Amino acid sequence: MTIKLIVSLLIFFSLLVLLNLSIIGIKTDFYKLKLNKKRKISLKEKKKRIVFNKKNNFLFQFFVEIKEMLKVNNQENKLKLLVFLSLIFAFLGFIIGYLYNNYLLMVVLVVFGAFAPFLYIKMSFINYKKKLNDELEVTLSVITTSYLRTEDIITSIEENLDNVKYPLNKIFNEFITNTKLINSNINLALSDMKTKIDNNLFDEWIDTLIACQDDITIKNILFNTINKFSDTRILELEVQNITRNPITEFILMCLLYIFNLPLLYIMNKDWYFNLIHSNSGKIMIALTSAIMFYSVIRVILLQKQVEY
User: Fold this and answer.
1) Three-state SS string across the chain, please?
2) Which of 80, 85, 154, 198 has fewest C-beta within 10 Å?
3) pTM value?
4) Rounded to whole angstroms, what are the CA distances from 45 to 63, 68, 187, 198?
């Protein structure tokens, strides 16, 4: 029992060292996170704080970013579920390491298991951003076409609102409601709508619309922004073509490593038992697992949406 307690404490403090954390730092970061709930800050401002604030450690920055991703998708209520899944996967990693009697592997699996649900959310958010870009291109194109004909942004949005998909339909619905029932100031409503989508080209489109309220003769400039969506989509496809083969090879290498132990067990049980029971074998398994999981995390974190 004493040995298990010592091992558990070593694992805990190893996690703190690996993630460059301290008990006081964690308490301070979560206190800051709690204070941030009391004031409304735009998504862009929060994004800048995440990127440029060097005082916050990696863990705090990562979880703030995940929280913002859930907020954008209107899934903030799933944060507790993610934390619960993180604990479950970390516990499974602990069990696997314990069954193999490999405490180094246990630390690796616990860390990766704890991060796995949040990494999945990050990958899902990247796909969401890609779909949002495609939907923005289509939606803004049809609205712009109507606006060039009617020269009235409210009418143009209403004409196409039935064909707009979520989440854009909600945002444009709120714009119509605000301008008709709350405040007739179109420029103010457009500026408010601009804060609800974190997209540079959407911001540019909104800025041009606001300028059109004072000078309608520049309305044709709106299509310049729409054309930039097409350029971004073409660049996105080129990047996907370039990275497809390396990512495929990386996935195959990971699968080869994962199935290496079962294959070794089938081919030669003596080698298998010697590998998992010897100290050198345990260190090698833990080290290669750490390299693989670190590579997976880096690949996921490096995945970004192409922006104009």
Assistant:
1) CHHHHHHHHHHHHHHHHHCCCCHHHHHHHHHHHHHHCCCCCCHHHHHHHHHHCCCCCHHHHHHHHHHHHHHHCCCHHHHHHHHHHHHHHHHHHHHHHHHCCCHHHHHHHHHHHHHHHHHHHHHHHHHHHHHHHHHHHHHHHHHHHHHHHHCCHHHHHHHHHHHCCCCHHHHHHHHHHHHHHHCCCHHHHHHHHHCCCCCHHHHHHHHHHHHHHHCHHHHHHHHHHHHHHHHHHHHHHHHHHHHHHHHHHHHHHHHHHHCHHHHHHHHCHHHHHHHHHCHHHHHHHHHHHHHHHHHHHHHHHHCCCCCC
2) 80
3) 0.66
4) 16, 11, 21, 10
Q: For 277-301, how does the pLDDT look when each residue is reduced to its tens digit (9 = 90+)?
A: 888 888 988 999 999 988 888 888 7
Question: CA 138 to CA 293: how far, in whole Å?
Answer: 38
Distance CA 81, CA 89 (A): 12
How many whole angstroms separate alpha carbon 37 and alpha carbon 170?
Answer: 23
Give residues with Cβ within 8 angstroms of 2, minimum separation 6.
Answer: none
The answer as to whether 60 is a domain residue is no
How far apart are the C-alpha atoms of 186 and 143, rounded to whole Å?
Answer: 16
Q: Flag whether 151 is in a domain.
A: yes
Instruction: Say if residue 167 is preceded by a cis peptide, omega within 30 of 0.
Output: yes
Whether residue 206 lies inside any domain: the answer is yes
Domain count, the chain: 1
Say if residues 226 and 130 touch (Cβ distance below 8 Å).
Answer: no
- Domain around 140: 130-232
Q: Does residue 15 sit within a domain? A: no
How far apart CA 118 and CA 218 sit, in angstroms, is: 44
Band of residue 34 on the pLDDT scale cut at 50, 70, 90: very low
Q: Give the tokens for residue 36.
A: 């941030």
